[in-house]
Amino acid sequence: MEKVREIVREGRRVGKEDPRRVVHAFKVGLALALVSSFYYYQPLYDNFGVNAMWAVMTVVVVFEFSVGATLGKGINRAVATLVAGGLGIGAHHLASLSGTTVEPILLAIFVFVQAALSTFVRFFPRVKARYDYGVLIFILTFALISVSGFREDEILDLAHKRLSTVIMGGVSCVLISIFVCPVWAGQDLHSLLASNFDTLAHFLQEFGDEYFEATEDGDIKEVEKRRRNLERYKSVLNSKSNEEALANFAKWEPRHGQFRFRHPWKQYLAVGALLRQCAYRIDALNSNINSDMQIPMDIKKKLEEPLRRMGSESGKSMKEVSISLKKMTKPSSFDIHVVNSQSACKTLSTLLKSGILNDVEPLQMISLMTTVSLLIDIVNLTEKISESVHELASAAKFKNKTKPSKSDSGSIVRAMPNKSHDDDDDDDHHVVTILGDVDTSNNVDQSHGEISVDSCHHVAIKIDDDDSIHEKHEDGDHIHVHTSRVSCEHTNASDLLDSGVKKN
Amino acid sequence: MEKVREIVREGRRVGKEDPRRVVHAFKVGLALALVSSFYYYQPLYDNFGVNAMWAVMTVVVVFEFSVGATLGKGINRAVATLVAGGLGIGAHHLASLSGTTVEPILLAIFVFVQAALSTFVRFFPRVKARYDYGVLIFILTFALISVSGFREDEILDLAHKRLSTVIMGGVSCVLISIFVCPVWAGQDLHSLLASNFDTLAHFLQEFGDEYFEATEDGDIKEVEKRRRNLERYKSVLNSKSNEEALANFAKWEPRHGQFRFRHPWKQYLAVGALLRQCAYRIDALNSNINSDMQIPMDIKKKLEEPLRRMGSESGKSMKEVSISLKKMTKPSSFDIHVVNSQSACKTLSTLLKSGILNDVEPLQMISLMTTVSLLIDIVNLTEKISESVHELASAAKFKNKTKPSKSDSGSIVRAMPNKSHDDDDDDDHHVVTILGDVDTSNNVDQSHGEISVDSCHHVAIKIDDDDSIHEKHEDGDHIHVHTSRVSCEHTNASDLLDSGVKKN
């Protein structure tokens, strides 16, 4: 009894987590009841006989949660049945020519070779990712048809019936999955990315308060809720396999909503990988927040202004991406926040150079510098993410924002006053200078070679390069170039100050 | 033609990566040829008729790469066929009682309810992990049997034949997968863990040379080979899903080699999670190594001795674990290396307190302190890993090492002189003090509450606690207690020095 209650509770939890699961269960029930009543229905049964069961089987095996997965499996199954059926008939014909004693031996050899080859092919990474199921069905159908032991005309009839029932089952699945409350893997991937941006943004925006404000031991429930909310980012850490599966399914899906057939799903994975990099840093930062309570607040406060701003500005830029992803518009004020966070980074470096921390104990220094270095990493990653999102936006042909809607302009308005409030004058000039760089610097390699030793960005950027090359080899070069083009590390902070003054 | 050559090249690569794949392909071919010759063999065919195809189907679908996966699927399929067959016959009987007009409607309702419920159950995480395939077959068989449209005695016959052919197919798979070059998932998991320890150990042991020795731009190929060898650790970063799948399969496997039926596979996952934590740190460290070339060598050299020792000693402890895992013996000199690395950590903290870095530029400080903090993290993680490995060793009943074999004693001998060579006198006393702590401290919570602010370990340990709670909730508490019990952070470094002097 206790056991039953537990199962019911578990069921409620699973259903609440994603109500579409309940709908999916009903859809499968519907499809199966439909197909088996075909089976039961006498005229159809007279026509297809036992072969009607292949329709039932197809529905059970092919019907998956998302449209993409269902379509992928259905197409795999239909094509594999067709090809293997043809080859199977051929093999059967060949064997039957050879006389009754050799025939079974020849058939066994055919089956053996076919099964061994196909099984081996299933280990190919590219086959495994998209055609694994098809190869499985290929092995199955080939073996069943070639060895069936029927006369040839019977076999042709068999293959024909089997193919038509498989197609019947497959089509029912696909139709029901597309037209009854469809679950699009592409849409899911898109939303997942947007919500990942959102949770990271939330953490970064709250970071300053969490790090610089003494925690009162007030309402424990409140504190716990706050922490749980902050630590939502942890789901991003392990999102890789989920994203990859969704992207694989999405490739099978037809045009739906605002997604074209050849939507750049691969670019979603690229952005997702960078975002995960960022989440690793945030995870480390989060553990530091707790332990850094040990550092006296007055020491932390010395770096409060730039650190707070680095967090909040990169958070804002991510929030902006999250919103514009949801609306599928190009992010507009996004770059401003990225540049703001970089200028905060420069303020920090000036501050550190001024020797403000000379009297800090070395052991406290370790912890404080870890936080600083993580935040620098995050700022630099934000910039890379910015570039990657721009690529995504243009590849996916996101609309330009014509008239900012309410919630959107809210975010810009919130950003703007902050900017003019937080930034001092030469930070504004940094903005100008850096944006200038983007347009004019053609000497990418050269500038990369001239990186000055004491730029605080450089260290972090190197870290990122390595990491992202590890995470996504293909785009490594591109990112590399980009990094040295846009970010501020190829001139040191004092140079920027100079140029700011000159423009004045 | 180019395409074909490419495919052949890919095939060669896939086969070379794990030659057992080729063997597996042959095994599948063998099983299928065997079962389909049953099918083709007239007396058997006369007995089972078309139902013989269920044997073929079972082989194709059930035969997996490892014994555990095959057994799991086979058992799932047999049990699900049996249960669903019984229920299906019951449903069919019930429906047939109700008269010809109601019968199809009732059957459709049965199928619908059954399919919807079972499909929903497949979303339960525990069901998904181990019984997903069984539920699928349950849905399938129930639908096929209940709707079959035959008379009842025919159905009983059908169910019986289907079950026996499924069992025939399943048993062939299981026998071939166990007796022809078996691939044990448990053995694979075990080896994977050992090799993960090995790659991390390699990195840590090489860390000192990599960080403190200026790279000559000599033989590029040599340098690249060295880097590739160092960066083997990257495979550990994404080992989670692989480990989990293997552990799931291993649970199905019978006693084999030195593994009992209820071998503590779960503990492998716990150790693996900690090891992955360590790999994340190493990844960050690796990126730092490259960027830290910017820090003048003379500054780095100031911290060389303790940093080098922290790396090499934790590397040695991991190497030791790797070796003893391979032999399935309890690691013996393992703890000594852990303690050595901790004492190096203390030397470092003393060094930092002495103000040796007071004249270092703040921006170089960031990078240097990041390296320091990562190494402290790694040392603390090594200690946790040590505890976790000890748990594994006793749960898995590893043998005590009676007579160290050659390669093993090599590792101990290498360790010992290092110890007496590197450690100064009061470090040796640290060892005594810390080991004493393990035995005597019952005041866990109290000591945890008293952590002093200036202990360098504390910060890092906090980080780990949080992370490991995130990675493995169940053991979180345990680790927490452990950490505050064994490690040296609940007394600060000067306390330890005092106690060392007292014992003198």
UniProtKB/TrEMBL annotation, chains A, B:
Per the UniProt entry, what are the Gene Ontology biological process annotations, in alphabetical order?
malate transport; monoatomic ion transmembrane transport
Q: What subcellular locations does the record give?
A: Membrane
Output the PANTHER family linked to this UniProt entry: ALUMINUM-ACTIVATED MALATE TRANSPORTER 10
**Which coarse location class applies to the principal site listed for this UniProt protein?**
membrane
- Coiled-coil annotated residue ranges, if any: none
Membrane topology is: Multi-pass membrane protein
Record keywords = Ion channel, Ion transport, Membrane, Transmembrane, Transmembrane helix, Transport
**Family assignment?**
Belongs to the aromatic acid exporter (TC 2.A.85) family.
This chain's protein is named Aluminum activated malate transporter family protein
Q: Which organism is it from?
A: Arabidopsis arenosa (Sand rock-cress)
State any GO CC term: membrane
Disordered: region residues: 398-428
> Which Pfam families does the record match to this protein?
ALMT
> TM segments?
21-40, 52-71, 105-124, 131-151, 163-185
